[in-house]
């Protein structure tokens, strides 16, 4: 017997990407996947990454196995960057992973191995891959609506925290929530931290878009405030977006524990899981990021490049909102200005997203998400016209 239960279903992203590749129309816009593109539609290597890669070519680091926890210099530099203060760093244990996805899976496995009956609360709409990753680690997933009227539903998040049991997890995106584009306000991080600390509920934080919302420090601030209050937390960090290292599969898993013994135990479990899966993470991306973060001038250059990407996204978003608001029915889209990061979430259902694709060659995903980072500025007016025509009777404030 071979391949007898073909019941698996891939998320819609990949089917749409295949449809896009097969679509012969010339003026199409591929806004399916969250990748930062320039005005020509290319996804260029960041200049700071090129400098680091040049140095690595010169130095020709050994290709020897790097160990189950990966590159220790990278782990240390990333932990300091993400946590930002020595007290938090002293409570952290970090393992290099196969990008953000690998970090999510490794941490989910850690949680499953150390608490088989845990529930993970997941706000919907969720990042398409979150449910699959959590379920693959055999965790019990409970979904709840996380946004209402185009904003984060704070009451819903707090209600979930109050109803969760000790040892349960709440999955929170650090900033620029995929797909809603919403970032949690500081006061909500604080209130949530108090409830979770009191109840022993563990934050499972996904940091994929730091630096692309309100600024690097600003995007990490809410999470850092929470971590100063809760005794334990797990954080999945992706280097894919902030360094443009999508294909290098670079990231890390950070575990915040009460004491060093718990940290050592967490590392042991993660190394055990990694050993039976991919054994050791790939070396190149972590070498690049460590080279950048550990060199003052190169780090400053990278920060400036990240800031440039962020301000271009803000500019594109505001341009689009301006164009839409000037069109008949455009007021319905005023809420787009409040969104942050790489994505744009339209108040569209899947039929309207089909219409956007079929009538205007604009490819997004059925939840209403478009990758703003893939729109050339010169095509904003055309995109606005397409959105306004498809959404002729949509009210942003009440539809989602
Ligand atoms: C919210 C979120 N988390 C994690 C990831 C995983 O990123 P990667 O595995 O490419 O680092 C993504 C990618 O789109 C994402 O949107």
What do you see in this structure?
It contains 15 helices and 13 strands. It is α/β, with parallel strands linked by helices and 400 residues long. It has two domains: 12-44 and 307-399, Aspartate Aminotransferase, domain 1, CATH 3.90.1150.10; 49-294, Aspartate Aminotransferase, domain 2 (3-Layer(aba) Sandwich). The strands form four sheets. The protein has a seven-stranded mixed sheet, sandwiched between helices. Strand 3 (119-124), helix 6 and strand 4 (140-145) form a beta-alpha-beta unit. Helix 3 crosses helix 11 (284-293), helix 5 packs across helix 6 and helix 5 (99-114) packs across helix 10 (260-275). The longest helix is centred in the C-terminal third of the chain and has 31 residues, at 296-326. It is globular. It starts with 11 loop residues before the first helix and ends with a helix. The mean pLDDT is 93. Pyridoxal-5'-phosphate binds at residues 34, 99-101, 127, 173, 178, 206, 208, 238, 240, 246, 251.
């Amino acid at each position: 017997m071979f391949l007898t239960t073909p019941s698996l279903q891939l998320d819609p992203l990949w089917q749409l990407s295949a449809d896009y590749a097969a679509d012969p129309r010339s003026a199409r816009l591929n806004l399916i996947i969250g990748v930062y593109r320039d005005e020509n539609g290319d996804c260029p290597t960041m200049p700071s990454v090129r400098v680091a890669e040049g140095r690595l070519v010169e130095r020709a680091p050994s290709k020897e196995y790097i160990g189950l926890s990966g590159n220790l210099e990278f782990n240390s530099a990333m932990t300091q960057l993400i946590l930002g203060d020595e007290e938090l760093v002293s409570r952290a244990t970090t393992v290099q992973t196969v990008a953000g996805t690998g970090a999510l899976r490794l941490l989910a496995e850690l949680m499953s191995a150390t608490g088989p009956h845990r529930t993970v609360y997941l706000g919907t709409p969720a990042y398409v891959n979150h449910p699959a990753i959590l379920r693959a680690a055999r965790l019990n997933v409970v979904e709840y609506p996380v946004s209402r009227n185009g904003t984060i539903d704070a009451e819903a998040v707090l209600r979930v925290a109050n109803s969760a049991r000790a040892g349960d997890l709440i999955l929170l995106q650090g900033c620029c929530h995929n797909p809603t584009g919403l970032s949690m306000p500081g006061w909500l991080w604080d209130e949530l931290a108090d409830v979770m600390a009191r109840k022993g509920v563990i934050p499972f934080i996904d940091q994929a878009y730091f630096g692309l919302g309100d600024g690097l420090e600003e995007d990490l601030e809410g999470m850092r405030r929470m971590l100063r209050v809760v005794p334990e937390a797990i954080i999945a960090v992706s280097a894919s977006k902030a360094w443009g290292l999508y294909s290098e599969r670079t990231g890390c898993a950070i575990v915040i524990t009460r004491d060093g013994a718990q940290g050592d135990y967490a590392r042991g479990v993660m190394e055990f899981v990694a050993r039976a899966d991919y054994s050791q993470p790939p070396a190149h991306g972590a070498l690049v990021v460590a080279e950048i973060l550990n060199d003052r001038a190169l780090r400053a250059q990278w920060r400036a490049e990240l800031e440039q990407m962020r301000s271009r996204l803000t500019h594109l978003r505001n341009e689009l909102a301006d164009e839409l608001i000037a069109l008949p029915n455009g007021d319905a889209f005023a809420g787009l200005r409040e969104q942050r990061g790489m994505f744009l979430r339209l108040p569209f259902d899947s039929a309207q997203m089909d219409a956007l694709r079929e009538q205007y060659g604009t490819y997004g995903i059925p939840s209403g998400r478009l990758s703003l980072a893939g729109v050339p500025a010169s095509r904003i007016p055309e995109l606005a016209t397409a959105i306004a025509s498809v959404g002729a009777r949509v009210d942003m404030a009440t539809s989602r």
